[in-house]
Design goal:
With about 300 residues, the protein is an alpha+beta fold. The protein has 2 domains: about 35-65, no CATH class; about 95-105 and about 110-285, OmpA-like domain (60s Ribosomal Protein L30, Chain: A). It is about 40% helix and about 10% strand. It is built from 8 helices and 5 strands; from the N terminus they run H-H-H-H-E-E-H-E-H-E-E-H-H. It has a 5-stranded mixed β-sheet with strand order 1-2-5-3-4. Helix 5 (about 180-190) crosses helix 6 (about 215-235). The longest helix has 25 residues, at about 25-50.
Length: about 300
Amino acid sequence: MGVEDKTQPIIVKKKVVQGGHHGGSWKVAFADFALAMMAFFLLLWLLAALEADERAALSEYFQNPSAFEGEAMAPSQAIGDGIGADPSIIDFEGLPDRLDAPPEPVPDDADDETLLERDRERLESLQEALEEAIDRSQALEPFKDQLLMDITPEGLRIQIIDAENRPMFATASARPLDHASGILRELAGLINEVPNRISITGHTDARPLQREDYTNWELSTDRANAARRELIAGGTEPEQIARVVGLSDTVPFDRNNPEAAVNRRITLIVLNQEAEEAMREGIETEGTPPADALDAPED
């Protein structure tokens, strides 16, 4: 009898899996990403097409999202408060060295001409520092044509004028708008670098107000006083303010068009020593009674 073969047969079963449907969630995610990138580049293209003043207006809207300019339901962040990026709209870093450096000592026997020359040099350095700081400020780019500076016989004159679509104050109001308040407070920081006193004058255009008991005289005076408060809020010492006056529409910037927007302005004058002395003498003269009153016999 032959040997019995007890080896079990090996059966191999091959299971063929048909290609099924793969998940499509990645396609949705990729479509969302592509759409977001398209929207992002479209936003960049639109921003690049805007003018400088339009970009500034857009920036102001997101800082103060109100239907009315300068009137938000919730107050925006106060200038100089908070954390993060510096909210200062004027960059005063890197100012001219001669403004930051201590002044050269003046000899005790220096004559009046030397003192006046030193005073003029100090005001010219201040003007140069202000112009340089304003030129570097992107936030002030739309307002550079509204900040005028020159040297006058009284000192360094800084004029903040209105533009037709960019006023500094609300209409017929002495409340400065946010950008005007910021400009005044930042100017105060640099004006404080010199010991000279300051004169503040408010001007209006020739358009009459609708209120019978409130004229351009009151409005110009109130706006000058509002500018004084903003300067003090920016760090100016109250004793540094020498004069606050309102001149209504009596000194127009544009004499050919008394109702032009540029006639509405605030004028700051950093007084030189000669003008300050003349002002002091005028005040003392006003406080002196007439000679005949002194000679009048007492009852």
